[in-house]
Every structure is written in C-alpha cells, then in structure tokens.
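Margin note from the TA: students keep mixing up input and output lines. Inputs are the sequences; the output is the structure of the whole complex. Example:
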Amino acid sequence: MGEVEISLSVNGHARTDAVEPRLTLADYLRERCQLTGTHLGCEHGVCGACTVLVDGAAVRSCLVLAVQADGAEVTTIEGIAAPDGTLSPVQAAFRECHGLQCGFCTPGFVVSATALLRDNPDPTDDELRVGLAGNLCRCTGYQGILAAVRRAAEAG
Amino acid sequence: MHHRGADAKQTFNTIGIGGGVSTTSAGAGTTRYTGARIARVEDARLLTGRGTFVDDVTRPGMFHACFVRSPFARARIAGIDVADALALPGVRAVFTADDLNPAVHELWYTIQGPKAPTTPLPLLADGEARFVGDPVALVVATDRYVAEDATEVVVVDYEPLPAVADYATADRSDAVVWEQFPGNVVGELGGGATDEVEVALAGAAHVVESPIRQQAYVAVPMETRGIVAEWEPASEQLTIWAATQAPNEVRSVVARVLGLAEHRIRVIMRDTGGGFGQKVLPMREELCLALAATKVPAPVKWIEDRRENLLSAGQARHEQARVRFGFDAEGTLLAAAVDHVQDVGAYPLPWPVGTGAAVGMIFPGPYRIPATSFTHRSMFSNTQGRTAYRGPWMFESVAREVVLDTAARRMGIDPVELRRRNILRTDELPYANGNGMPYADMSPAETFEHALELFGYDAFRAEQADARAVGRYLGVGTCSYVEPTTPGNGYYASEGATIRIDPSGKVSVYVAGGSTGNSLETTVVQLTADALGVPIEDVATVQGDTALTPYGAGTGGSRSGAMTAGAVEATASVLREKLRRIAAHRLECAPEDVELGGGRASVRGTPTIGLSIAELADLAYNRTTALPPGVGGGLEASERYTAPSPMPLWANATHVCSCEVDVATGQVTILRYVVAEDCGPMINPTVVEGQIAGGTVQGIGGALLERLAYDDDGNPLATTFMDYLLPTTTEVPIIEYGHVETLSAGPGGYKGVGEGGAIGAPAAVANAVADALAPFGVVVEDLPLDPQTVVAMIEAATSR
C-alpha cells in the first residue's frame, strides 16, 4: 500500500513520517511516536480513552487518520504535565480526588477535562457532567472524576 | 463496633474525599498510615501516560496476531483454506485447531485441580463452532493491520446447524452444544432442608412466589484482554506480558499447556486496565498465543478489540429463579426456597456448577429464616462462555431482595419494616444459615439501620407522598446482603511477601500482585511502613512479576487486602525481631526493650538513644562482625500468611437507592444513593470508597442499561459501545457512604470490599423502581429496567 508523507507537531516537537493512508492517528501516536499513553478502549469512537488535542480541539484519535493530522499540532497525555514532571492542575486534582483506579481511561479523561475547563473555566455541575459524558470509566463510578474536575475548576 | 457516618453531600464539588491527604511522615514513631487517606503511589505514572499496559509492550521482531472467529452460533467446520492468507505479504503463520489443539499437554485451572469435573475447552474450535465469535484460526503477521487483512481471506467452510440460543429451554432443545452433555445440562446441585421448607410453606400465613430473571451483562474492563508471548528456543524460556489479575496463575496454566516447568516461564504484568473477574483465568485466546509463540517462534502480541471483548471474553449474570417465601401473620420469615438456573454458554470458565450453587447457599442472606433450601442447574447454550464477574453469585441478592419487596407489598407491610422484623442482629451471631453458611463477625441489622438513617427514610416517604399527589413517581429501594470475602480454600489460602530493607535503609516489598485498579501498590506500601515503623516515602513495592515476587493467587474473591496484610505482617515481624536484636546488641539493652518507629530503633523510654534503620542496615550488610552472635547478615525476609480455615471472612452491606420514574417514557433517574457497609477496619478509606463506587455503578448499569443481548438464533446484538450501554457521568448519582466496623477473624480484622458494590446495586435500583410504580401494581420480574421494559411493566399492570 502506498504511503503518504505527513508533517506535524507532536507535543511541541516537529515530525515528518511516511504513513499508510489507513493508519489511525492513535496507532500513529502509539506505534510510530512511541507515545503509548494514548489508549484504545473501543476503536469506534465511544469510550474516549484515545482523546488527544488536535490544534487544541479534543478529538478521538481512533476516528482520525494520521494523514488528517498533517500540518496539525497534536498534544497527547505525555504533553500535559510540565517537562520536569509537575502535574497539570487537572492531573493533580485527579490524584487528590482518587479520580483514577486502573488508569486506562485516565489519559482520555485528563485530556477531555483539560479542553473542557479551557473552554469553560467555571462549569456548572450539569455542564461538567455533560462535558465528560463522552468518556467511559469502569472503575471509579465517576465519583472521583467529577470531584477532581470540579476541584481543578476551582483551583484554576 | 463503631459507626462512621458519611458526609451526606449532594454535590460533587464538596465530596469528602482526597482533601488533606498527606504522604509526609511525622517521623515520630507514632505515625499510622493504615487507616489514613494516603495518596496513591500508582497515580503519577498513570496520570502522565507512563503506565505500562500490555499493549504498550514492544519487543524486537514482534509479530501481531488476530483471530478468525465463527460468524455462526453453531456450525460444522467442513474445512479451512489458509493458502490465500499465507500468500499475503507480511503474514508469517496461520494456525488452526489441527496445529494447536494437539500440542496441549494438559489444561486445568488451579482453583479446580486436575481431577475436578470440567467442560470441554479446545483452544481453537475443532470440527464445530459453538458461538458467534468462537475462535477458529489464528493469523500471525508483521502488524495488526496485515493480520486483520489476512483473517478476511482465510476461507472457512461452515455448515450452519440449529443453535441452542435460550438456556432456559435448552433442556428441551433438539440441538446440543456438546454431545457428551445430553439435554445441555452441565450439572445440578441442591441443598438445605427441602422437606422442612415444604412443611413450613404449607403452614405459612402468607406464601409469596415469584419468578425473577436477570439479563446477561458483563465486566467490560476498559482495557480489553491482551498478551505478548516471547519464546527463546535456545534457552527454552517463555516470557509473557499479560493483562491479568493473576500472573502466577497465567504461569501455572501456560506451564501445563506447554508441558514446561513453571520456572521456564516468566509472567509480567505492570498495569492492567480493569479486570472485575474477567482476567482471573487465562482463557483460550491467551493460551493460543503462548503456544503460537513457541511455534513461530518469535514474540507475538494479541490485543483483543472491543468487538471481540463483547463477543468472546465471557458472559455473566444470565440467570433466573423461582423464589418462594413463607411468612407468619406478622411477616416473620418461616421458610425460603430458590430454584436457580443459569446460562453458561458453550465454554464456561471455571466449572460453573460450583459457583452457581453459591447463589443458593447464600440466598438466605442476612435474615433469620428457620427453613431454607435451594436447587441449582447450569445449562449450556451456543453463546459465549460464562466467566467470573465481580460477585459471581450476586443473583442471590437480586432474587431475594426483589421478591422480598414484592412480598412486602402483597402483605401490606412497608419493605423496610419487613426486613427490620427478620434481619440478623449482632447478638445472634455466629449463626449458620439454613443452607450451611456459618455467618460470623458482621452486623446486618446495625448496618441496615445506619444506611436508613443516613438516607432519611421517613422523610423520603413524606416527600414521596407529596410527589405522588402531583403526579410524580418517586421510589426507594434497599438491598441488604452478606458476602463471603477472602476465601481460605485451595491456593487462595496463603499469600507471601518478601521484604528487603536495602543497605541504605530504604525498604522494598515484593508481593505477587495482580492489581487491576485495586490500589494494591498503595495498600502494601501503607501496611509495610506501619509494620516496620518507617516513613512511607521510604517504602517501594514490586508486584506482578513471577520471576521476582513470591507466589500468590492474584486479585479475586475480595481477598487482596486481608491476605496481603497477613503476608506483610508475617514477614515484617521477622525483620522487626532482627532489627531489635541488632539494635539491642549495639545499645547494650535487651531486645524487648527496643522500640521501632519513625525509622528508628530506640531504647524504650529513652527515645534519644537509638539507631536509624539506615545505621542498622549498614551494620547488617556491611559490618557483619558487629552483629550479635547468631544473627546473620542482611535484612531480608520472606514469609507467608496462611488462613487458619477455609471459611471466608464475612462482610455485609445495605444499599439504599431513590429514584424518579417518568411513567410516559420509562426513564429512570436515580436521585440519591447510600451504601453502608461493614468491611472491617479500612486500610485506606479513599480506596474502599472507590471500590464501592465502582462496583455500585456497575450494578446500576446492570439494573438499568447493560444487556449482552442475543437474538433467537444466537446472534449477538451488542458488540459495540453503541449497543452495549455503559453508565456515563450523566447517569450516576453521588454515592454517600456509611461505615460500620466489626473485626473479622482475619489479619488486622480486615475483610474484603472489592465486589460488594456490584452485588448490592441491582436489587436496590430495581426495588426503587418497583416502589415508584407501586400505585400501578407493577411487579418486577425481569431486568434490566430499561425504558421499554418500564413502560411495558406499567402497561401490563394497568391492563390487568
């Protein structure tokens, strides 16, 4: 199968790669960029575990092809904390509020919540619930997650 | 026993968790980490995308695998042509039953042993496919994309056969799933005092009989199953990275399948993305991969996709019963009987009759019932095999609690009052239920009342009456249960810990692990810091690697808290004694006068005179001539805790749920949710609440949303998250917690808490809905209570 050259920025670093047109952005990030923090929970766009930022918008990287990200700025979970490892306010709040257990859905939630609070820094409880309803978690019953994002909003 | 009331908070911005958590040691020897809301040690890597789940493992020269799966519920496999697939560039191998099945040396699971009754378990479908998704062939290729391409061109000649789609009528089906099981009956069991029950029912003032049916729903860990298997032919060494709850069991089962010594196999699991029972036992696909890796030979990775997970990772919860209760004129229970039938699919794991019988044995629950009996029947069907799911016997609670509410309404007694008359009080324990379960060390009545008090039951009844007056339908339901945790039988009976105080004085603790979100790393670090009296930041843990850690049965059966607490204490006590002897020799006092705490060993009553753990470690490793006579070098010990009896540690809980039902649309909205439990002392209340919340929301999903549906021909209808509906942030209530504490007979008085939420929630939700719809005369007999079912129930009741 023919390959297509793409140039993009991933977590602030420029990359150029030749990829098959059918390669998803998620697989590109995980396998070509070795950024395995982006997780695949359903590969059909429901669970949100693979959420990354593409030009600032939270997208499901299982439903985007790598070729569609040509020219884009992509931020993954690995690009959310400071380079020295200092957690972002959302990450710190998840830690403080037991917003994660197995941690598999966590990168998607952190990225989604980061975008949510950037766009709506002072969400109501209903806005918060609706804003996070595109991500599935099976461990926490969402209790710690809702508390964490509320805490991050208050801290922000 | 004492109560710890939860903060009854209604908005999640004020939920009382996480605040004030500190991992800083006071360093004074009085610090107790056990019982505190310690922040988790797992979180930093998981929050930053640096966890290591099985799909994150890449090995040099690694191939990727994909299964060819049957599209038919039942079909004869007349032939398989792999030529086109093998011709595809990048395809390394295609395996069928002929290639893999004869290579199996022996296949049995430790919990059952080699001689226990079992059901057939060919690794790949052999001659006949028995459910939609049955693995028929395995393709190995250079990447997953190519492997999937190749599965499309493996030509399987299927001859479709009539399928056994409905387990409930499988005994009357012309078709059989397995020829050696006529009538599709796997096995039957019964127990209790059948004659006494019939006599009591015949003389009872009220007899209430009802069917109750539960739909299939499943664990659905967010990470699917997966494995990387790497075979080194020269050294005959197999290394496996797996998504598992039990790395040692993966090693043991693979060793049997391959005919290898266990020490030839190393199983590593770092992070596993949820299990909930589904990852307790390695299943057919994982075992195929282990065999395939030796035949390629190369590292081979298989990561299940979500469709496969919903098709093939195992069904659960699909069961029904006929329930009969007898009461005297005042509503005192005289007798209870349950006749239980469950669906086990085509390839159940493990032997399902024993676990199915647990439904009957625990059916009497937390109530005082003079005469009880049960029957159980496990039935094959041409659907995916039954596997463990969080509280695998939980249908006992659904059957008992839903029908008790039905009975209360028929007798004109408030459902809470009916339970109050029959629930066991602490002063009645120990108590053996009529089916032989020896209850001890729990608090059903006290926990029940605590939950109702937190909820404000009487106030809700007033609110409900006001709402009904304006045409709104509110309801409240409860579920009280007793739960056998931390089983003490077979390989579950012991657990080991190795603790090494390093030459620097820092501490490493090694346990078998199997944590899939259970916070076991944090738990073990907390326990070890207290057991040695060292600052918690000085303790690190290694888990989930069979080459490094002691043997252990993994997470399951709500066992890890109590069992690892026992293991850590058994090992730490040896090290404490050694530290005391070394310190006493240097400080010129008696070992019994040495006190440990705050990272120091000091003379009792004179805390300024002492040595740090680092100084003692330096002596132990580097200056052995300074050690007292008879004390060897080093500070490393490995011991095991062994349960003194096979009896479980009993936990109990009461769930209280309120809801509003839109009678036009059938939509159920949960208003409040209280869980009060008695899990003994809490090692980390935040972790306990997290386990309760997760289980409870899984149970809410089971009550209202989730259905692993098949059609009448055995075709699966829920193979994506568009069809299999999980709860999201918009459906869940804020959960309020209450805690009643009775010490168990186990280590630290602890009990298990991992499964209970999933046991209690479905019946509490169902009873809330039934209560809301009581004015219509609705009787709940079928789950889930999705909108169409609710509307149908109302229509059926009002047309009667």
